[in-house]
Amino acid sequence: MIKKFIKILVLYFGPWSLLRLIKRRKEGAGISILYGHRVLSDAIIADKNDPRRITGHTSVSEVEVAILELKKRFDIISMDEAVEQLSAQGVNRESVVLTFDDGFKDNFKFLLPILKKHKVPATYYINSSVIDSKKNLWFQSVINFFFAIEENVVKIDLSKKEYDLSSADKRYKAAFDFMQYLQANYKPDKFHEVIYSVAGDKALPDESDYHLSWDELKILNEESLITIGAHSYNHYPLAYCDEEQSKFEIEKSVKDLEEKLSIKIKHFSYPRGHVEDFNDWHIKVLKDLGISSAVTTIRGVNRKGQDLYQIKRVGFPQNISNDVEDFLWYVGGIPQLIASLRN
Questions:
Q1: Quick one: which of 176, 147, 150, 141 has its CA closest to 161?
Q2: Residue 81 belongs to some domain of the structure
Q3: Whole-model pTM?
Q4: Is residue 99 part of a domain?
Q5: Whole-angstrom Cα distance, residue 110 to residue 46?
Q6: What is each CA distance from 36 to 40, 44, 62, 152, 318, in whole angstroms?
Q7: 51-105-289-271 Cα dihedral, nearest 10 degrees
Q8: pLDDT of 183-239, one tens digit each?
């Protein structure tokens, strides 16, 4: 309660509000870009044992709460508008862009109706390898496996480790531990093969966890509110790929989308998107393909002059309605403002 009170003071009345105003006057208004992944039913997100409750996924009602809160304080604009303002004319007003990665089917079933209801734009970043398929991205296959095991403990000979699966949180921890093992010991193009050798059919998704179809993407592409961007072919962390593989990952996703949808892809989202996950070589590949922007998961607010191939984003929290001030705290870039002052 004390933390919430402090955040209310900071957001609306305190010296940080004045500092934010000074920063806007000095550097111009900012654009906060939010990123989410799956948008699921409220019942799924409420179930603490459901594997789809992973951080980065949120519910229908929480997305609606977020949109309503954002509309009170920001302009919600498209990625095209954001890039134009950041690169040339300057940011008009404090603004927000909504983005969703990976291209799950629920982005069509649940998210699209909310966007249309509130008339707000969003960008969908797509991994083309799983479109119209009954398989999942490599990291999701690992999560599927660890949640499909009935026992509360499993020993995996490959990693020479025993994993505690006695709670949902421990299953997540085990899954991410095994992902780190994969990344440390195998090249990305071997991930699926290794996972299947350990997990078999337990790595496969349930029908409710499929990704979009090409027909659904074509419908999305016709929606004026929706921008389609690329997110790589297999969602392999590019820094773990050699130049040939990472070039393939970028080019294949862009060309698949352009050919299937008859559009020009202008926007890209780096898999994982941490500062160590891309470099100047990857940016050159993007520029050569005519990509005009690339988003990261580096936190912060973007202002005029922002490097358009290192655009910052803020993650969608899972339960916005429980603490709206915390949500606005991160959207407003206050942690980064505090850090910059400390430095």
A1: 176
A2: yes
A3: 0.91
A4: yes
A5: 16
A6: 11, 16, 12, 30, 9
A7: -10
A8: 999 999 999 999 999 999 999 998 889 999 999 999 999 999 999 999 999 999 999
